[in-house]
Design brief:
The structure holds 2 protein chains of 2 kinds.
Chain A lengths: L1 H7 L2 H11 L1 H19 L6 H26 L7 H17 L4 H25 L4 H20 L4 E2 L1 H5 L2 H8 L1 E2 L3 E2 H19 L1 H11 L1 H6 L4 H26 L2 E2 L7 H11 L11 H20 L4 H30 L1
Antiparallel strand pairs in A: 1-4, 2-3
Helix pairs in contact in A: 3-15, 3-16, 4-10, 4-13, 4-14, 4-15, 5-6, 5-7, 5-13, 6-7, 6-13, 9-13, 10-11, 11-13, 14-15, 15-16
Chain B lengths: L1 H30 L11 E6 L7 H15 L2 E6 L5 H13 L4 E4 L8 H9 L3 E5 L10 E4 L2 H15 L4 E7 L4 H17 L3 E8 L4 H14 L3 E6 L4 H12 L4 E5 L3 H9 L4 E5 L1 H16 L20 E4 L2 E4 L9 H7 L5 H5 L6
Parallel strand pairs in B: 1-2, 1-3, 3-4, 4-5, 5-11, 6-7, 6-8, 8-9, 9-10
Antiparallel strand pairs in B: 10-12
Helix pairs in contact in B: 2-10, 5-6, 7-8
Classes of the chains: A mainly alpha, B alpha/beta.
């Protein structure tokens, strides 16, 4: 009897049991299957140069997705992240062109983003409005600020970045000539956010608030504070993504970040983050993003004709979501 | 009594003569153009999509100059969104103000057939520019020939490649004039450069990151990639960034200008920019619109005026330029606005009130 108990509580068995029950497992299996198929069918997929491209292209959307996941876990969503990213980088870029040192310019952009998140959070909590409508408005407000600030003219940093190698390195540099710096920043943020989400008491409050607001309130959690902080975190992450964007593309176009909110939202949903709050993990959402990026990469490698790409991409995304939901149901049924 | 009747008769005759003389004069004015000018209360509107994009600004400068010369008023409007419904709504809002004419660049052809036809039936002249609605009754269309732009781009890139290698296209499938440029690029390469292959046609949807990824991924498969064409100026920024990182001399060319693209061109990161003559697009567009609104000013040798039909039905090519490092400085919008007497771009985009 004792031996059986020891066996049951073995860390290796526990790990596999947790892995089997984890929602991310099915997505990992799908991604692995895609990678195997792509490696066999396309000789360019597994090349390091292509992997570098994948790593570089996941960074900006990845940071935005982390923010989206946090807000979604708190029970909301943020449609303004693309526009806030654009606004934040417009602040920073404008400051740089006016001669402000890069670090201070970046801080200006981050503060601008944080203020945006704070105001969104305050409006959502004080007036009890939905995240959807408030962030939809802020999508227009932030973009509008960019238009007013720039008069619709893109801000070029091509010549400025030549004298700012550190800033240029953030978006375009490679560590050891191999790993994109932007990916390293993203990876650091992703690990920190995932660990924080799994281990910290602060993030547990976010889960409680998202899963049952009233219960969280009765258990002493300051739910308004939690919601505001989630909004601020999301916008600040958009601000961080803006630094990479601005550096990588040498400036700010007024359309920068358009559609980014939909990519982040799709990634989070594919990764099992609940639209109703309280459920999901950072790792899951980012796996969802990896799935989306892999599909796009495959279409590029297979030279799929432009008019087919959206159709193929979204059919595959839909199939993945359906498959994931079916597996989740089967798992719950088995466990119950 | 006889004297009184004679006086009345004399007065009637005199008034009749004066009236006849005036009628003869009016007849002369209506069949000849006299001056090409309107009245201060005539307002003409420019309607665009994504109104914050700087491409439109010199177009409006051209329209505004024409309006000043014609003595009529004008304003700049449309929608800030990249959305057909939003632009149709803005067009209808313009129509509700009863302008004399609307100069519009429709985001998609078909969505504007009914609104344009309705405007014309209400007596509002409509001319399209940059993008068209050919199945509508629009009275004229001013553009740089999109097919010509695509063909010029193909020849510029392929000649520089020495006639061998691979090229790719970064496309924005939702916009008609962009599609025409891409199709012309591809067909020109296929027809005129047998040793150059179009290896990828990617939907990057005006997104820098998508442009970057597309070029990076395509290069893995086709290391002889020598050229990238994009019909707009957003995706190509990412494409050019990828080309720079690869360092293999991939030539990136697009049909657009903005400060970032011009700086990249000057730095050698962009191979070329094709720029439709935006000012002339607006200027010629306004002249066409004015004539459409004032058919009495012209006397074309056809039946249309007599049948009360559109007297023009013409397409005007406003021309294009290939911008080089040496000429880039002429294309910065803010500098341009100041060079033609405006305080800044906002001043250039302000409404003009005649009179």
């Amino acid at each position: 009897m004792n031996e059986t108990q020891v066996k049951k509580s073995s860390p290796v068995l526990d790990f596999f049991k947790r892995l089997k029950n984890a929602r991310e497992t099915s997505l990992i299996l799908i991604i692995v299957a895609i990678c195997i198929v792509l490696s066999i069918t396309n000789p360019y997929f597994a090349k390091w140069a292509n992997i570098q491209t994948l790593l570089g292209s996941i960074a900006i959307n990845g940071i935005l997705t982390i923010g989206m996941i946090i807000v979604m876990i708190s029970g909301g969503l943020d449609l303004s992240i693309g526009a806030v990213m654009c606004m934040s980088m417009a602040f920073s870029a404008k400051a740089i062109t006016l001669g402000v040192p890069p670090i201070l310019a970046i801080l200006i952009g981050l503060v601008g983003a944080a203020v945006c998140g704070f105001v969104i959070g305050q409006i959502v909590t004080k007036l009890n409005l939905s995240h959807f409508i408030v962030t939809l408005c802020f999508m227009g407000i932030a973009r509008g600020v960019v238009y007013v600030m720039t008069s619709g003219i893109s801000i070029s940093l091509v010549s400025n970045l030549k004298t700012m190698p550190t800033l240029a390195f953030i978006g375009s540099g490679y560590i050891g000539g191999t790993v994109p710096m932007s990916f390293v920043i993203f990876l650091a943020l992703a690990i920190a956010a995932d660990l924080y989400a799994r281990k910290s008491s602060g993030m547990r409050k976010v889960y409680y608030t998202g899963s049952n607001e009233m219960a969280a309130k009765h258990s002493g959690i300051k739910i308004n504070r939690v919601k505001v902080l989630a909004c601020v975190a999301c916008s600040v992450l958009a601000g961080i993504a803006s630094v990479i964007y601005m550096s990588k593309y040498s400036g700010v176009s007024v359309s920068a970040g358009e559609g980014a909110e939909m990519t982040a939202l799709s990634a989070a949903v594919i990764g099992g983050v609940s639209m109703n709050g309280g459920k999901g993990t950072v790792a899951g959402g980012l796996l969802g993003l990896l799935f989306i990026v892999l599909i796009q990469d495959a279409m590029n490698l297979f030279s799929v004709q432009a008019f087919w790409q959206d159709l193929i991409r979204y059919v595959i995304v839909l199939l993945a979501v359906i498959l994931d939901v079916l597996q989740e149901r089967a798992r719950k049924k088995k466990n119950s | 009594m006889k004297k009184f009747l004679a006086l009345i008769l004399a007065l009637v005759m005199a008034f009749s003569l004066i009236a006849c003389g005036q009628k003869a004069n009016q007849g002369g004015e209506s069949t000849n153009t006299n001056t090409l000018s309107g009245t201060a209360d005539e307002t003409y509107v420019m309607n665009v999509f994504v109104s914050g994009v700087e491409y439109w600004f010199p177009v409006y400068a051209g329209m505004k100059d024409a309006c000043k010369q014609l003595g009529v008023s004008c304003s700049y409007g449309g929608t800030t969104e990249y959305d057909a419904q939003a632009q149709v709504d803005s067009f209808e809002a313009d129509l509700a103000k009863s302008p004399k004419g609307i100069l519009i660049s429709p985001i998609v052809e078909d969505a504007f057939v009914e609104p344009i036809n309705r405007a014309i039936s209400q007596g509002v002249a409509v001319v399209t520019y940059a993008s068209d609605s050919p199945d509508s009754n629009r009275q004229a269309y001013v553009t740089s020939d999109n097919a010509h732009e695509g063909a010029i781009a193909a020849r510029t890139i392929c000649d520089a490649m020495g006639g061998t290698g691979s090229v790719m296209v970064l496309r924005n499938p939702g916009q008609d004039n962009h599609n025409r440029r891409c199709d012309a690029f591809i067909s020109t390469v296929e027809a005129e450069y047998p040793n150059i292959k179009v290896v990828a046609d990617v939907a990057t949807n005006q997104n820098e990151q998508n442009g970057y990824d597309a070029v990076m991924a395509t290069y893995q498969k086709y290391p002889d990639l020598g050229g990238v064409f994009c019909p707009e100026g957003v995706s190509i920024v990412g494409g050019a960034k990828a080309a720079k990182e690869l360092g293999t001399g991939i030539r990136c060319l697009c049909v657009d200008t903005n400060d970032t693209l011009l700086d990249m061109l000057k730095e050698g990161d962009m191979f070329g920019l094709i720029c439709p003559d935006q000012y002339m697009q607006g200027y010629l567009g306004m002249l066409s619109l004015f004539v459409a609104a004032h058919p009495e000013k012209v006397n074309p040798m056809n039946e249309r005026k007599a049948l009360n039909e559109n007297i023009m039905g013409i397409s005007i090519d406003n021309g294009l330029t290939i911008i080089t490092k040496d000429t880039a400085d002429y294309y910065y919008v803010a500098k341009y606005a100041q060079s033609i007497g405006y305080a800044d771009v906002n001043d250039m985009l302000s409404a003009y009130k005649a009179g």
